[in-house]
Amino acid sequence: MVRIADDFGLGRRHDKVILSLLEAGRLDSTSVMVNEGIDPSDIDRLRELREAGVQVGLHLNLTQAFPKQGPVWPLATLMGVRLPDGVAASLDRQVNEFVALFGSLPDYYDGHQHCHSFPAISPLVTRLPYGPQTWVRVPLPATWAGRWTNLRAGGAKVLAIMAFAARARKVFARAGLRMNVDFSGFLRLDDPTKVRLWLPRLLSAAGPDCLMMLHPGDATDLMQCSGHAPESRAAETEILMESAKA
């Protein structure tokens, strides 16, 4: 099982929690939302972890606003057939910023709120630069049992995400891109009770080929917790750490 933390770069306390879990071997990877607010010392720590074997991906972001960043768009707009001007340029800019920070292409691509799987965006993802080992994260469990469990854990929105992912997988496959085989980790992050109920179940059900999406962080990080119940992320971190110890 590969344990990937989303949203590195979203908040400073959030970033430090992810770094601590990576350094302790309780996470295997993280994907970065590139922006000017990331602490340079945290980038240095992540570079060192990458040199030690931790995979670092690019968390393509088209919806989360950061200071001094380019335009963002509503989810409904990005899910449409016709994309607004500037989306492709934003993706290219983020790749260039990642290379400037880490000195090479991302180990993999994924997307904030799974935007990289949207029908009009997935073809743009195939045009991004790829190295021999670069891959794309596809948020689709491999089995119907896994899909049902994640649907129960994550709620009705998971249906739409999995439908987009199934279509995107075909687009990525036609382009000859590498992808994860299995996926899990959909949760209602605005509901701490549901996180505590379902995260241990998802972790225990994940097989050796599963990519597990996780959102550890700090409940006092206002940027990270914006729009969510603050204690929900703290609950996930606590459960993740206890599961790792076990």
Structure characteristics:
246 residues, alpha/beta, 8-stranded parallel beta sheet
Global geometry: globular
Largest sheet, strands/sense/barrel: 8 strands, parallel
Fraction in helix: 40-55%
Measured distance between first and last alpha carbons: 15 Å
Number of helices: 10
Tally the beta strands: 8
Taking all residues together, what is the mean pLDDT?
Answer: 91
> How large a portion of the residues is in β-strands, by DSSP E?
5-15%
**Backbone CA Rg:** 17 Å
Order of the strands making up the biggest sheet: 6-5-4-3-2-1-8-7
Kindly describe this structure.
With 246 residues, the chain is of the alpha/beta class. It has ten helices and eight strands. Strand 1, helix 1 and strand 2 form a beta-alpha-beta unit. The protein starts with a strand and ends with a helix.
Task: Provide a compact summary of the structure.
The chain has 246 residues and is an alpha/beta fold. 46% of the residues lie in helices and 13% in strands.
Give the arrangement of secondary structure elements.
Blueprint (H helix, E strand, L loop, with lengths): L1 E7 L3 H12 L5 E4 L7 H12 L3 E6 L14 H4 L8 H16 L5 E4 L10 H5 L8 E2 L7 H11 L2 H18 L3 E2 L2 E3 L7 H14 L4 E5 L7 H4 L4 H16 L1
Parallel strand pairs: 1-2, 1-8, 2-3, 3-4, 4-5, 5-6, 7-8
Helix pairs in contact: 1-2, 6-7, 6-8, 8-10
